[in-house]
Design brief:
- This protein is mainly α.
- Helices cover about 40% and strands about 0% of the residues.
- It has four helices and two strands.
- It is elongated, with a radius of gyration of 52 Å.
- The N and C termini lie far apart (about 135 Å).
- The relative contact order is 0.03.
Length: about 180
């Protein structure tokens, strides 16, 4: 061992701890066999039978796996079909989601205004209920109350009835009871 010790280290007392044990050598069982230098062929791989019928595997990756270019093309085509099916499924789900949103909005609109979306009439217009013998009403300037009393006395009873009839047609009649 090292015979010369440092003067400070020689002053520190050493103690033996019962909780610390030094590592010991592992004993191997009698049935131990060492691993062969080359691994056997994979048990999960595709075994076609004749090794002479297999295509030569001359594309080697950095991990040591060798494959034929046809196998690479086949895996790429399989990946492409898988990605295409995933994209179609995503489009189908997106369309279903958008259709569900449209149906909810349509149901809400039908709840607020039932029957409105079921007809082709979109513009509400009042229907005219005017008999053919009457004249159309043209808006007149509203006279003040003083001028109105003077005009009714001057024009006579015949014209006041036509003005009253025009007002009745425009605003409806009021029955005095």
């Amino acid at each position: 061992m090292y015979s010369e010790s440092h003067s400070i280290l020689a002053q520190v007392p050493l103690t033996v701890s019962p909780f610390v044990s030094l590592p010991t050598a592992t004993t191997l069982p009698y049935t131990y066999r060492s691993l062969p230098s080359s691994l056997p062929p994979s048990s999960t791989g595709d075994q076609t039978g004749d090794t002479a019928a297999e295509k030569p595997k001359f594309v080697v990756s950095s991990s040591g796996q060798a494959v034929h270019p046809d196998e690479i093309l086949a895996s790429c085509q399989h990946l492409q079909t898988h990605l295409t099916s995933l994209a179609e499924d995503a489009k189908r789900r997106l369309n279903a989601w958008e259709n569900a949103i449209d149906e909810r909005e349509l149901a809400e609109k039908r709840r607020l205004a039932p029957g409105w979306l079921d007809r082709n009439e979109r513009m509400l217009q009042p229907s005219s209920m005017q008999p053919s013998g009457y004249q159309t009403f043209e808006p007149l300037k509203a006279p003040s109350l003083q001028h109105e009393s003077e005009q009714t006395s001057e024009k006579g009873a015949a014209e006041s009835t036509t003005a009253g009839e025009e007002l009745d047609r425009a605003f409806g009649t009021m029955d005095m009871r």
